[in-house]
Sequence to fold (180 residues):
Amino acid sequence: MNRPKEKSILTFELIGILFIVILGSLLHFTFELSGYNLLVGAFSAVNESVWEHLKLSYWPAVTYAIIEYRYLKNRTRSFFQAKAMGIYAMPLVILTAYYTYTAFMEESLLLDISIFVAAVVVGQLISYKLLNWRETSKTYVKISIFAISFLAILFILFTYYPPRISIFQDPVSGSYGIKR
Fold:
């Protein structure tokens, strides 16, 4: 791989960090600002549960991947696989870091925000490293698209019909999902 191409792809991924962090931060407030619009709730945090906060990295990362695909589809060898791995890494980093630190200390807004940013950085860097990793089969492309879509379905479904387990519970109100 030549260096200018690699640098250009890295630039896209670094811009993606800013895009995801900014849009994800805004999505924390869009449900309330929309007047509690149910459709907006599918893509925004509808309460303060850990699950709802995972959407703040997922939807912006998917949105950026869609934008990025137009420019990188012919310049990379494993676009969908790289994006799937990066997108899945973000909530995994958030969950691991959040539950690890809260096992030992009180919840901290500054730490929560730092974890969110760190998760986005990790996800985008994983994506960058895998974008030209190797040529993959159409089967892996289909699996990657399915994996990204499956997570979208879970985020939407569990916004309206959350399981009654702690990750879905709003610690402020004690409720689950959208307050009706």
